[in-house]
Amino acid sequence: MNGKVHWADVYASEVPQDRKHRIATGITPSGPIHIGNMREVLTGDLVFKAIRDRGLEAELLYIADDFDPLRKVYPFLPESFAAYVGRPVSDIPCPCGGCRNYAEHFLGPFLEAIEELDIRPHVIRSSEEYRRGSYTDEIRTAITHAGEIRSILERISGRTLPPEWSPFYPICSICGRISNARILEHEPEKHLVRYRCSCGNEGIADYSKGKGKLVWRVDWPMRWAHFGVTVEPFGKDHASAGGSWDTGREIAKKVFGVMPPFPIVYEWISLKGKGEMHSSKGIAITIGEMLEIVPPEVLRYLIVRTKPERTIDFDPGMGLISLIDEYDRLAAEGQSREFALSKISSIPTRIPFRHMVTVVQIARDDRGLFQCLSRSGYDIRDYENILGQAKRVRIWLKKYAPEFVKFSVKERLPPQVSELGDDERAALEEYLEHLRSLKSWHAEELHNGVYMVAERRGMNAAKIFSAIYLVFLGQRQGPRMGWFLEAMGRDPVLRRLKEAVKGAH
Ligand SMILES: [Zn+2]
Ligand SMILES: [Zn+2]
Predict the structure, then answer these.
(1) Among 209, 188, 31, which residue's Cα sits nearest to residue 109?
(2) Per-residue pLDDT at 270 exceeds 90
(3) Separation of 30 CA from ligand 2 center, angstroms?
(4) Structural class in CATH, domain 415-504
(5) CATH code reported for the domain at 1-128+267-345
(6) Where are the domains of the chain?
(7) Which of the ligands is closest to the CA of residue 180?
(8) Could you tell me the distance, in angstroms and rounded to a whole number, from the CA of residue 93 to the centre of ligand 1?
(9) Model pTM?
(10) How far is 9 from 207, CA to CA, in rounded Å?
(11) pLDDT tens per residue, range 9-31
(12) How confident is the model at residue 314 (pLDDT cuts 50, 70, 90)?
């Protein structure tokens, strides 16, 4: 990094150096968790690792806000979910029927994905903490300071709240909704509130048993106090003037008597040409879908190489290939801080993505795939892992690759060969002779052979490349020639060229 200090290390040097750190991240699992959300967890993980690398003690928390109510029937949900709007996502059935509840349906794949990304936080579920009574003291404090909290919120956010407003939202015993019920009475010693819900029900809620939750703007600083959070990354939406960060830090100091954490504000990730990612709008790629195509260390690198305050415009097509190339260069050097923060502990045999793109399009099956790879000199013992890499590339080709990288090797001499001019045929013949004379079969040699023939004949090399592609692919372009021919194998290549040349006479 040319002597520049990595942003994660800059943050690590700015936090207090005399204490143990708790870095908190959190996401509401109310829909598919997309790579925009991943930035939060990865940013937290990078700062966590940077703090630890300074020799300080640190812990990474991931708080799943699974006690938040379902806000609306999202486009990916059946209409029947209208009945659950307003209920905690941990109390709603899962959309597929196979998971513990609605929240777990989205949380499960997300937790698997972050493990693949080498992020191992201490996972906390809000629903469990509320039900276990972990927050009883803090909720009592919040309800007894309702007036003070209200005036902080009104002063800083500019909103007007009704005089009977309470930071505690009970879960109605009749309609099951977390609602802005009116609190009629508070019995602090018994941790009970009497409330009247908008459905007409008048009931009693015990907040030591999770019969309600604090409103988000109070819940957030409450956690800082409860868990002793010292560092927290959050999206720019929370950071706007009068937003939940502004009110939260005031509430933390005045009501809960703690210092707010060191803030790290991050920008969104947008999908090239499609705009910012929001799972509710359906223009997102989930982390799982990303890991279907992107090696996990490269996904880390995407976040590592960009400062949190800068937007990432992610291009899953050719942009992904450049990103992988860039990562591979860093990996080859093996020195940079960016590489150290991106890499994942156990790196198995990695086939360069570009090469895999060529090989999976040549090979007709897995056996062919391994033959191609071993011809290209790769160690193929790590069978499962290599199949996994090939799978990623196949999905990428199907879903994101631009047309010009796609090809198929024709089983017979393509009819387009009749387009070849006399000079091209002669060049093919000379190239064939050259290949026959070679004692070994190596990509670079095969590649340079084309230039050699071009020079000898005083022809443009591009013209010869295009003629060779035509013979194998029936089109005038293709993958890098030498590596393509190497993976194809000597005999099939000689046979096809011979046919093409013979057809010309
Ligand atoms: Zn499910
Ligand atoms: Zn109700």
Answers:
(1) 31
(2) no
(3) 22
(4) mainly alpha
(5) 3.40.50.620
(6) 1-128+267-345, 415-504
(7) 2
(8) 8
(9) 0.85
(10) 41
(11) 999 999 999 999 999 998 888 88
(12) confident
